[in-house]
Amino acid sequence: MKSNFDPYLLRAGSPSVETYLRLRVASGLSAKTMQAAEAGLSNTWHGVTVLYGDEPVGMGRVIGDGGCFFQIVDICVTPEHQGRGLGKRIMAALVDELQRRAPDGAYVSLIADGDAQFLYEKFGFRQTAPASVGMHRTV
Fold it and tell me: Taking every pair of C-alpha atoms in the chain, what is the biggest distance, in angstroms?
């Protein structure tokens, strides 16, 4: 008999600095400094953390100016918990909050690494090229 027990809980809010730093590295995202994480997390417009019991195993955030422009960042799940639909649940929670609170016409962007583009397409995101091209610079 199939159990309806779901061991994962999505909690609204930014992760702690320590959790943020650990989840980024554990899931294959670039490392950040404590100073950068403290500044960045305090500017989160909306975030979610995935808990497995008491252990944070995934996260995602929306940053932006609160009116015109938003960016989805830090979508990640630790390798041992990947393949269970958690990335989809994180995206759904972030997109739901954007639809609920962001003003009509707000521009929401993200950077899709590898096959993540297929997940993001399910939430209505489209490539901008050739009309525009994403660019970046690291300081």
Answer: 54
132: its two tokens: 């525009």
CB 59 within 8 A of CB 50: yes
Phi, psi for residue 81 in degrees, rounded to 5:
-115, 5
What domains can you pick out in the chain, each with its CATH number? 8-121 (3.40.630.30)
Q: CA-CA distance, 119 to 112, in Å (whole number)?
A: 9
Q: Indicate if the alpha-carbon torsion angle 63, 97, 17, 7 is positive or negative.
A: negative
Distance between terminal CA atoms of the chain? 54
Could you read off the pLDDT of 6-64 as tens digits, one per residue? 999 999 999 999 999 999 999 999 999 999 999 999 999 999 999 999 999 999 999 99
Give the alpha-carbon dihedral of 110, 78, 99, 102, to 10 degrees.
-60
Encoded tokens for 43? 């500017």
| Preceding amide of 130 cis, omega within 30 | yes
Q: Which residues pair with 50 in a beta bridge?
A: 10, 58
